[in-house]
Amino acid sequence: MIERIFTGLFLVLVLVSFESMGSPILNRTETDSLITPNRIEVRLRGIIDQDQEIQSYISSDTHLFFPKGIYVINNFITISNVTNLKISGEPGTVFTSNQNKIITISGEINNLQIEGIAFKSTKVSAVDDAEGLIFIANYGDNDRMDGLKIQNCRFSIPNSQANGIKLVSEGTNSSAKNISITYNKFENIGRMAVEFQNHNTLIAPRFSDFEISYNYFYNVGTIQLGPAPACVSVSGHSLNGKINYNKFYDMHMESSKYIYYGIENAGTIGLETIGNYMQSSTYGFTGLLASGPLKKSWLIKDNVFELSGGKTADKNKIRGMELCNLDNFSVTGNTISTDGMAIMLVNCTSGKITNNKIKVKSGNAIYLRAGCTKNVITRNDIDASLGTDNGVVLFDGSETSHNVVSLNKLLKTGRRPGSYVNVNGANNNK
């Protein structure tokens, strides 16, 4: 029972605590008033299906706090049309489910924060499911989301082909902006760790001003079978993103005949990827992928790629970067060491590749083809001495022309001075 006592302008909420098997004890206080005016503390006794009870407390201007414990969520919780909602847990708080979704977010959202909770699924399924443990469903024609933060959480769904976090923003006039996914751990994920999507049309940027930074990724793609899977993917028309200072370890590739990617940019204008670290020693993968149209103004800076193949026979799957259909970009200050290729460019224009330290064991260090023009490659330290003798920087095709190369340090097989090679009609590259 809750008694409300009003004195002047002050409101004091007094909660008479109650306790029964499987019921929470709620404590409402005025603490945390700078974030939300109403704090609800949930204490569970026993492990039962808690989703309906938790659902009843979802509302605006609320901080829902979960002490350490296991919370069973077998029918996903819906967060829709709320303002100033915070959901947090102390260390050891776990939301567990036998389904692919634990939380769905939709409708009008302003200032939603999810913090300090481990999301785990035990579902076993080989069916491709493009949603996620946290599914941000921005489907309504006029849905607006502004201010969504997910931080200090953990995600695990190893035996189902689903994502950790998925955002779909595809309503006719929908938008999602100021999205922050930081300081989380994604370990043993069946499909992708984080996927943002706007595939409905490329006319409007339906998500923007996003950040996916300071996260830890390990063994993502455990049972993914489809083409071009990625650990982090931002696809479709979007604006102004940051994917910085993340750590990626041993992305899983054994179960897929396709190349697996660390970060995919399939349409963001104004993306930066700075200070990421990618390492593999088991299956190998490609670090960065630029795919799809409408990409430009991408800054790729100060990343480290240490990608070995392990048991992977096809070293062509292992590349530092595969950049396609990209305009006005910068690749600078990166350290790339791979069992395969360092950088492949396809139909890329007006890029600058400068001051990178590169070492490869198979294939070309830098390979430009299919209409790469007006790119500048300068002041790079490139070691291809352990690879085959077919050129350190290779230009391929008659439409690959007018690229400028200068002041690079090149080593080819046997640590001899390296060379630039034009094949299949490539011209005016010097």
Question: What does this molecule look like?
Answer:
This protein has 430 residues and is mostly beta strands. Helices cover 1% and strands 51% of the residues. It is built from one helix and 42 strands. The strands form four sheets. A 14-stranded mixed sheet has the order 6-8-10-13-16-19-21-23-27-31-34-37-40-41, with no helix packed on it.
Task: Give the gist of this structure.
This protein has 430 residues and is mostly beta strands.
Say how many strands there are. 42
The structural class is mainly beta
Mean pLDDT: 82
Strand content: over 45%
The outline comes out as elongated
Main sheet: strand order: 6-8-10-13-16-19-21-23-27-31-34-37-40-41
Q: How would you sum up the major sheet?
A: 14 strands, mixed
From the N-terminal CA to the C-terminal CA, the straight-line distance is 80 Å
Extract low-pLDDT stretches: 1-34
SS field, number of helical segments? 1
* Helical proportion, percent range: under 10%
Overall radius of gyration: 25 Å
